[in-house]
Amino acid sequence: MKVIIAGAGAMGSRFGLMLHHANHEVVLVDGWQEHIDTINNNGLQANFNGEKIVENIPAYNQSEIAKVDFSADLVILFTKAMQLDSMLQSINSLLHEDTKVLCLLNGIGHEDMIKKYVPYQNIFLGNTMWTSGLQGPGKVKLFGDGSIDLQNLAQGQEQAANTIVEALNQADLNAKYSSNILSSIYKKACVNGSVNGLCTILECNIASLGASSYANTIISQIVDEFIAIASAQNIFLDKDEVLTQIKSSFDPETIGLHYPSMYQDLIDNKRLTEIDYINGVIVRKGKQYQISTPYCNFLTELIHSKEEILGVR
C-alpha cells in the first residue's frame, strides 16, 4: 500500500517507521525542515523498545510535496489540529478518487475540516493508544505497546475500513474495526483532556501526576465534563471504565514515564498546543448545550497563559 504520513512528528514517525518496516511504500510529510533534512540524510533513527534501528524513508516538506509524483492509497493524518487545514491543502494533489484518509489526531470534530478536501465515503476516524517521543530532529523513542480502533464515516465502507485494519496489522499496530468509534474517540479525549494539560502545567510525566494525592479528584471532575458533553450528543461513556483507563497510564512499567505530546510541544519545543481542540472544544460545546465546564475552561486558560509566558506564538 502507498501511504502518506501527513505530520511526521513523534506519532507520525512511529507509524511511518512501522509501516515501512512492513514493506509498505511510505512517504513522510512535515513542516519542520531540520527534521526532514535529518531523516533524508541519516535515516529515521529510533530507540525501539531499547533497540536502536534506522529506516530510510523519504521525507518532504509540505510546501514541496505537491511536486512529488506519488499517488496515495492511504493518508494517515497526524498533524497538530491547528495545522490540519494547511496540510490537507498541501497534499491535495496527491489524493485521487479512491484515496482513503484516516484521521488519528487528538481531539474532537476533525471530520468537519477533512470533508472540505476528501469525499465523505473516503474518510475514516480512528483512535490510537500508541505513544512515542520525539528526541530531536530525525530521532524518536518508541516504547510499550498500543492499539488502534477505526471506523468508516459513510455507510457501506466497512470493507474499506477492514482493508486499512489489515494493512496496519501487517505492521504490528494492533488495529481493529470499531462499530462505535465516536465513543472510543471521546474515551481517548478524556485521557488527553486529563493527562496532557495537567502534566504540561505541572511539568511532570504521567507517573508523577498519578502519584499526586490531588490527581484523582481533579481528573474525576474533568472526566465528568467530557462525559456530560458526550451524553448531550448521544455518546455514552462509563466513567469507571474511563478512570480505570487513565489510572492504568500512571504505571511506570508501561507508559507512566512518558511525557505527553502537549508537554513535548510546549515545554520541550516551545510550540503552541492543541488545548483548544481537546479541553477547549468541551468548553465551546458546553456553551452550545448550556453545560457548565469550569475545569476544562480553567485548564484551557492555564495552558494559554503558559504559552504566553513562554513566548510561544
TrEMBL record:
Residues 180-307 form the Ketopantoate reductase C-terminal domain. One of its GO terms (molecular function) is 2-dehydropantoate 2-reductase activity. Keywords: NADP, Oxidoreductase, Pantothenate biosynthesis. It is an enzyme of class 1 (oxidoreductase). It comes from the Bacteria. Pfam families: ApbA, ApbA_C. Pathway: Cofactor biosynthesis; (R)-pantothenate biosynthesis; (R)-pantoate from 3-methyl-2-oxobutanoate: step 2/2. GO terms for biological process: pantothenate biosynthetic process. Its EC number is 1.1.1.169. Catalyzes the NADPH-dependent reduction of ketopantoate into pantoic acid. This is 2-dehydropantoate 2-reductase. It comes from Tetragenococcus halophilus subsp. halophilus. The lineage of its organism: Bacteria, Bacillati, Bacillota, Bacilli, Lactobacillales.
